[in-house]
Design goal:
Layout lengths: L1 H21 L1 H35 L5 H34 L1 H4 L3 H13 L6 H24 L3 E4 L6 E4 L2 H37 L11 H12 L1 H27 L6 H35 L3 H14 L1 H35 L8 H39 L12 H12 L19
Antiparallel strand pairs: 1-2
Helix pairs in contact: 1-12, 1-13, 2-3, 2-5, 2-12, 5-13, 5-14, 6-7, 7-8, 7-9, 7-10, 7-13, 9-10, 10-11, 10-13, 12-13
Length: 439
């Protein structure tokens, strides 16, 4: 059961990527309508199941044990139905207030769809990244086992278990190994972001799309390996420096559970939240720094500074476009999770002798969200890269002879829509040309 649902959600995620590729211009409204239908329909089905199971409970055809199981199922269905109703109402209210801003993301989504048409192998990036992470984690566990057995063997006479006493230097190696786990994992994720950024930047700043290299993704990977590994190492190391204290404080907070010192728990939790927010901000800045590196082939610090200044200059656009785009993609994730959960509820409804509904549904829904996040995060990354390219393009070009825009026609329409909305174009900068990408 669980395997079939997880396979279906992977297939559903691939279908979502195909939809993004071919009908990106209508994607926003299609997702909005589907989420409305899915959320309201799912809520109605849950209430219908609740009424149906309650009627079955009131009948006297079941045994005492069967009534206890049916009563638990009725309570669970009532809880699910109430939760789904609250979620649907909140979701509809949010979509109502964001309806005007959602229209402004169509241009970016349309161009992102064109990117996937010209660069279809971008869809496979989560697979390669996941494969690299799995191989690295297997290697890391193997090295950890070797480190754990390098000490002096000591046998416990009472239990007969042989343990290993590690000397001081080897204990420090274990902590070094743990830091390496976080750092290299972040490095692999950063490599994916840099690869996507390089390929999308090549697409955006190529005026004649027919002259795009035959293998832009492989070219981006080769360029990253040759020139920008230091940039990725520095960016991932910064994330590691923030993540390690957060993990340590999270462990301390877990150890303080049940203790009487509530003030200490509150302070630790506040520190964890602050470090989490800092980590997310740095991760977003790193992603844009990688894009700036792909555009100008500058160092990490220079690229981070340029990306930060551009984002500050376009703060309103970032808030009105990028955030709404993330929200729309979040709706796509909700759609995938909702469809998977709906299929699970239908399957379990025909197996009423199955007493436990919560655990398999929760596992499948969590896994569905993770898989959907892996796929749609690629599209989200493409949209973010396109937005930064668009901001750089409008900063250093104005459409006059010699300073023509690189942007797509859909983004040109977006510029006109931005003027109608009263958004001011940022300063034109110093008029210098952007540096060409290293080929």
């Amino acid at each position: 059961f669980t395997f079939s649902l997880t396979f279906s959600l992977v297939f559903l995620s691939l279908i979502m990527m195909v939809v993004i590729r071919y009908i990106s211009q209508l994607l926003v409204w299609i997702l909005t309508v589907l989420v409305i239908i899915g959320s309201t329909g799912g809520t109605g089905v849950l209430w219908w199941f609740y009424v149906d199971h309650r009627k079955a409970l009131n009948s006297n055809t079941t045994s005492v044990f069967g009534k206890e199981v049916a009563s638990d199922n009725v309570k669970a269905l009532l809880f699910y139905a109430i939760g789904a109703t609250i979620f649907t109402v909140v979701l509809l209210l949010v979509m109502f207030f964001m309806r005007k801003r959602v229209a402004l993301t169509i241009s970016l989504f349309h161009v992102a769809g064109k990117v996937f048409i010209h660069l279809p192998l971008l869809v496979l990036q989560p697979f390669w990244t996941f494969l690299c992470l799995i191989l690295f984690w297997i290697y890391w566990i193997g090295v950890l086992l070797f480190l754990g057995t390098t000490g002096t063997p000591v046998k416990n006479n009472s239990t007969g278990v042989v343990g290993y006493e590690m000397p001081g230097p080897l204990q420090f190696l274990v902590w070094y190994h743990v830091v390496g786990l976080i750092w290299i994992s972040e490095f692999i994720l950063a490599f994916q972001q840099m690869t996507i950024a390089g390929a999308v930047v090549t697409y955006y700043f190529t005026r004649n799309k027919s002259q795009i290299p035959a293998t832009p993704i492989i070219s981006s990977m080769a360029r990253t390996i040759r020139y920008h590994l230091g940039t990725l190492a520095k960016g991932s190391f910064i994330i590691t420096l923030v993540k390690i204290p957060r993990l340590i404080l999270t462990y301390i907070h877990s150890q303080l559970k049940g203790k009487e010192n509530a003030c200490a728990r509150c302070m630790v939790k506040a520190c964890v939240c602050c470090l989490w927010c800092l980590e997310k901000c740095l991760a977003y800045l790193n992603q844009n720094a990688y894009t700036a590196t792909a555009i100008n082939s500058t160092s990490f610090c220079t690229s981070a500074r340029e990306a930060f200044l551009i984002l500050v200059e376009n703060a309103l656009r970032v808030a009105a476009i990028n955030t709404v785009g993330d929200f729309v993609l979040f709706l796509g994730k909700i759609l995938i999770v909702s469809c998977t959960a709906f299929a699970g509820v239908l399957a379990l409804n025909y197996q009423r002798d199955y007493t436990v509904w919560v655990l398999p549904l929760l596992i499948v829904c969590v896994f569905a969200f993770l898989v959907a996040h892996c796929f749609l995060s690629v599209f989200e990354n493409v949209v973010d890269v396109l937005f930064l390219c668009f901001a750089v393009d409008t900063k250093y070009n104005d459409g006059s002879p010699g300073r023509e825009y690189y942007m797509d026609k859909a983004l040109m329409e977006f510029v006109e829509n931005s003027k109608k909305m009263g958004w001011k174009k940022p300063d034109d900068g110093d008029g210098r040309e952007m540096k060409p990408m290293v080929s």
